[in-house]
Each structure stands twice: as C-alpha cells, then as structure tokens.
Amino acid sequence: MSDKAQVRIFGTVISTYTRIVQITCEEAGLSHQTTATAANSPQNRHPFGKVPVVEVDALELIESVAIAQYLDNAHNGGALQPSDPAKRAVLDKWIAIANNYLFPLFEGGLVMPWIMHRVAGFPIDPEKINHALPQISRALGFLEAELQSDGAWTRADGEGGFTLADVFLYPIVRSLELTPQGEVGIAQCDHLKAWLDALGNRSSITATRWEIEN
Questions:
Q1: Model pLDDT for residues 74-120, shown as the tens digit of each residue
Q2: Do the Cβ atoms of 104 and 136 come closer than 8 Å?
Q3: Rg of the Cα trace of the chain?
C-alpha cells in the first residue's frame, strides 16, 4: 500500500457511488478529497454524465467497480477481494445485484423522491412510492433470506470478512433505511438490520457518513 497516493474524487456529495469510492479509499488507507461535481454539469468529465470521476496515480478513472477494484488492488493488496475464482464469482454476483437491481429500485422508488422532498422541497408522489413498495419489499425479503443462507454476500470471501460486496451494498441499503418506508421495512428484517448496524460502526463507514445521517 502506498502512503503517497492521493485520490481526487469528483462527484455529488450525497451520492451512493461517491461514498463507495470513499469507503474503498478509507479501507486502503488512502488520502482522498471530494470535489462537489453535479452529474450533468459541464465540469463533469464522465462521457455519459455519471459520477464519480477519480484521479489517482496519474490515471483518470470512471465506473465505480473499476475504480474500487483498482484502489483495492493497487493500494490494499486486494484485501477486499478473494483470490479463489469461485469465491470471487460470488463477490462479483453480489456487486452486480447491488448495481443492476437494488440501486435502481431503491433509488428511483424511495431514495430520490425523499431526497428531493427534503433538500429541494419537491412534493412527495404517493402513487410513485406505493407502486415501488411491493418490489422493494420483495427485494428486502430476498436479502434477508440470503443472509440466512450460505450464499450471502457477507460470506463472499468464504470467511465472513468485509469485502467489496459490503462496500457496494452498504450505501445502497443504508440510503433506503434513511427513508420512512425503508426504515420500517428494514426494521422487520432482523439479519439485514443487524448487518447494517454492525457495519455502521466500522471506521471506513463512520468516516464517510452523509450529513443527513447525523
């Protein structure tokens, strides 16, 4: 691990994927600075208007999976990723589930409506939220069931250690918990709630807390 690497992160401040990169930096012991950059602003260098964009080791990187893997591999000895191909496949599966299914569902159904309401005063759309709630409930049930099985992301390394699957899943699930309906739903999932609470005390998580969590 290099103690000289400086990571510059360009992304929105209250952002799931900005935080994922921040958590990875903390796990790798890397100094990092976040410059507030709106996704669709002219200052954003991502070719498809996404965040974050990262500068590190004279590289400009986009896409959070590639960024997190690089930071872990180059500066953390790959400690957040199992080397065994089967265990790595489980890890990659959970990162894909988080990015492709959980994030769009949670973000569009509950998280953004509540953020826009609290930050910008936009009215809540009950119809939109009620339409998403059954799918969100099923997703939470799936996560709760998986946490009771051998296929859960918490055992993606085969030993129950902290991995990139946790790094990606925590901000996604935590952001849902910060909504009224999400908090109620997660409170009914004993194993999922316990996982969230346990990770909430990890130093990389506490160091990257959003202001809205305080």
A1: 999 999 999 999 999 999 999 999 999 999 999 999 998 888 777 66
A2: no
A3: 17
How do the domains of the chain map onto residue ranges? 6-75, 85-202
Report the C-alpha gap between 21 and 7 in whole angstroms: 10
**Are both 6-75 and 85-202 of the same fold?**
no
Task: Report the relative pairing of strands 6-11 and 31-36 from DSSP bridges.
Answer: parallel
Q: Which fold has domain 85-202?
A: Glutathione S-transferase Yfyf (Class Pi); Chain A, domain 2 (1.20.1050)
The position carrying tokens 């759309």 is: 125
Quote the DSSP letter at residue 122: P
Tens digits of per-residue pLDDT, 18-44?
A: 999 999 999 999 999 999 999 989 999
For residue 148, what are its two tokens? 């009771």
pLDDT digits (tens, 9 = 90+) for 52-69: 999 999 999 999 999 999
Task: Name which of 179, 173, 38, 187 is nearest 111 in CA terms.
Answer: 179
Could you say which architecture CATH assigns to the domain 6-75?
3-Layer(aba) Sandwich (3.40)
Question: Taking Cα atoms as reference points, which of 103, 75, 107 lies closest to residue 3?
Answer: 75
- Give the torsion through C-alpha atoms of 19, 23, 29, 33, to 10 deg: 10
The backbone torsions φ and ψ at residue 19, rounded to the nearest 5 degrees and listed phi first, read: -65, -35
Q: Token pair of 207, please?
A: 């160091």
Contact assessment for residue 154 and residue 160, using Cβ atoms and an 8 Å cutoff: yes
Q: Model-level pTM greater than 0.70?
A: yes
Residue type, 76: N
